[in-house]
């Protein structure tokens, strides 16, 4: 019986890997075109590793893709040192593939706009970059960028701050520094791009309507997952005891309301702690309450 199932399992794993590779290549192409074909020709910048490389490129006369490659590999090495091999496996693929695709697009010299237009460029850069990041998050992968830096800072220096706040602070610092180098207007356009990226990520992953989702998590690591949701995501979480009718085993089911982006962070953490966990994501039309991101119960009447 096991001999029959094993080739089938291998075939399914190969198929899943091929699907992941297809979407990652698609994401890399869209993201590379956003940077090389839209952002750079119009003199714009953004947050994250892209913004850091744009600053470095202002002083080092090298192609953007080469500098990005160097930055990605450096962050990958630092992540392995401080975060371990688990983080290495999550970001290795895009560390290699994304800068290579970007290098190819630089050689093709493709541009979206016929004439320089910073406002249009900021908007479309946000749209394409958001599609890229959304596809990457949707398939459960990560970039070798400021997210890894934020995780290191949280682990070593700021354990009581949420990962999202540390990441927001890093991107803010990058954009502020860009204002001194490229001018205040360029930094403000970068803010527009960041807002659009955030919205596009949510649209790619959850469609146009969903602003809040409900996660139902069945895991043996319920205490660790609860602490992560409360301390890092800073959302409330409830729990109930449930019984699996087939095995009659007792489990704890966690329930949390959060944004689509926060749900991805929770999903990653659950995957790290318990590979056998069951996570259900349910779209929510609206939530009344006093929590962050919810509609005010008294005003929405």
From TrEMBL:
Subcellular location: Cell membrane
Gene Ontology CC annotation, any one: plasma membrane
Keywords linked to the UniProt accession: Cell membrane, Membrane, Transmembrane, Transmembrane helix
Pfam family, one: YitT_membrane
DUF2179 domain location: 235-289
Superkingdom, natural source: Bacteria
Keyword Cell membrane: yes
Transmembrane residue ranges: 21-40, 66-84, 91-106, 118-138, 158-182, 188-208
Bilayer topology term: Multi-pass membrane protein
Keyword Nucleotide-binding (UniProt): no
Chief location bin: membrane
Name assigned to this protein: YitT family protein
């Amino acid at each position: 019986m096991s001999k029959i199932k094993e080739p089938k399992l291998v075939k399914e794993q190969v198929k899943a890997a091929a699907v992941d590779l297809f979407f990652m290549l698609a994401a890399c192409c869209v993201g590379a075109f956003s940077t090389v074909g839209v952002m750079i020709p119009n003199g714009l910048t953004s947050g994250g590793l892209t913004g850091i490389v744009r600053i470095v490129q202002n002083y080092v006369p090298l192609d953007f893709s080469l500098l990005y490659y160097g930055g990605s590999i450096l962050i990958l090495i630092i992540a392995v040192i401080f975060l371990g091999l688990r983080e290495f496996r999550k970001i290795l693929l895009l560390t290699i593939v994304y800068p290579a695709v970007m290098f190819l697009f630089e050689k093709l010299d493709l541009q979206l706009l016929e004439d320089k237009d910073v406002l249009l460029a900021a908007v479309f850069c946000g749209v394409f970059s958001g599609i890229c990041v959304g596809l990457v998050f949707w398939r459960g992968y990560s970039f070798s960028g400021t997210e890894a830096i934020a995780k290191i800072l949280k682990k070593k220096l700021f354990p009581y701050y949420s990962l999202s706040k540390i990441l927001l602070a890093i991107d803010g610092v990058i954009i502020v520094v860009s204002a001194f180098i490229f001018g205040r207007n360029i930094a403000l356009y970068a803010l527009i791009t960041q807002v659009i990226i955030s919205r596009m990520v949510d649209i790619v992953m959850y469609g146009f309507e969903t602003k809040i989702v409900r996660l139902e998590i069945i895991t043996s690591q319920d205490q660790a997952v609860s602490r992560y949701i409360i301390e890092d995501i800073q959302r409330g979480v409830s729990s109930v005891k449930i019984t699996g009718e087939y095995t009659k085993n007792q489990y704890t089911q966690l329930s949390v309301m959060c944004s689509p982006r926060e749900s991805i962070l929770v999903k990653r953490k659950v995957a790290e702690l318990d590979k056998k966990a069951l996570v259900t994501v349910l779209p929510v039309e609206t939530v009344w309450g006093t929590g962050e991101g919810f509609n005010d119960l008294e005003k929405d009447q």
